[in-house]
Amino acid sequence: MLPLFLGGAALQRRGKACFWVAQRFTAATGGLFPESALAAEGRCGAQHSNLNQVPIPMAQLYVGTSGWAYPTWKPAFYPEKLAQKKFLNFYASKLNAVEVNYTFRQLVKETTVQNWIAETPEHFRFTIKAHQVLTHIRRLKGAEEFLQRFLGTLEALERAGRLGPLLFQLPPNFKADQSVLSEFLKSLPRSVRAAFEFRHESWLTEPTFTDATCATLRERNIALCVAETEERNTPDVVTADYVYYRYRKPTYTADERKAMVARIQEHLAAGRDVFAYFKHEETPEGVLYAVDLLTASSNAKPEA
């Protein structure tokens, strides 16, 4: 059986003639490319018309916050008497994605993942923050074995079609090293969507940013995490066929939120899925911003 996270990567070994089929099918099926599809395709020979006819889904917007288990969101978001064990189910009735941050410190158990799946609708997506062993301890070096272990904990989400991009947040003292980044990305299966948040200025300074950082990400169709904080704003540059935003400021004006909607509409019109997450915190402002953004973007008319 072909491992779930090796869909695109495994096909590359069959040659470049197959790879365009992998890309088309992976896009249409959410990242999976079963061996049966390859066989039906006559080993990517002349008979590729069936996959040409696979409908490509419309671009989707996923909005949420970086967590959901906050009793202090009552009563502005959660009903006053709602039990905490029902928080995720209620959250998923208002938003369609969440960024899970506790996976930075511990590997998630399959029973936990199954509970997440049971408590959320089919369209809901879980973005998973990469474990600190990968980003802060190994610092992307010699991390292949742990990466496979980490990905193994997420297979249930992948099988259920609930896995969003993985977030790799590099530490603030991790200076730009394109060779390390490039080598690490080789071990990341092409069927896995991911976003990288760079917090040392050297990654984002020209000409390194355009000539190296963005080029490396584009080569592997990896999103640049556009993080917006009080201290630093990542340039809003597209490096993949999906985009990833982290809105981390404590407050946003109506005009700032209107600009978010306009930018999101540009991405959707261009066929790019959008993943956007507001800061969690004990106060409910972030989750209320998220609901407002999802509602406003859904009601906005795409530009002609």
Describe this protein's structure:
- Helices cover 40% and strands 14% of the residues.
- It has 13 helices and eight strands.
- An eight-stranded parallel β-sheet has the order 1-8-7-6-5-4-3-2.
- The longest helix is centred in the last third of the chain and has 16 residues, at 254-269.
- It is globular.
The CATH class designation of the largest domain is Alpha Beta
Query: How many discrete domains?
Result: 2
As a percent range, the share of helical residues equals 25-40%
The side-by-side strand order for the widest beta sheet comes to 1-8-7-6-5-4-3-2
Describe the global form.
globular
Q: Residue-averaged pLDDT, rounded?
A: 85
CATH topology of the largest domain, anyone?
A: TIM Barrel
What's the story with the biggest beta sheet?
A: 8 strands, parallel
Structural Rg: 19 Å
Poorly predicted parts: 6-49
Sheet-strand content, in percent, reads: 5-15%
Number of helical segments with 4 or more residues: 13
How do the helices and strands follow one another from N- to C-terminus? HHHHEHEHEHHHEHEHEEHEH
Number of strands: 8
- Sheet/helix structural class: alpha/beta
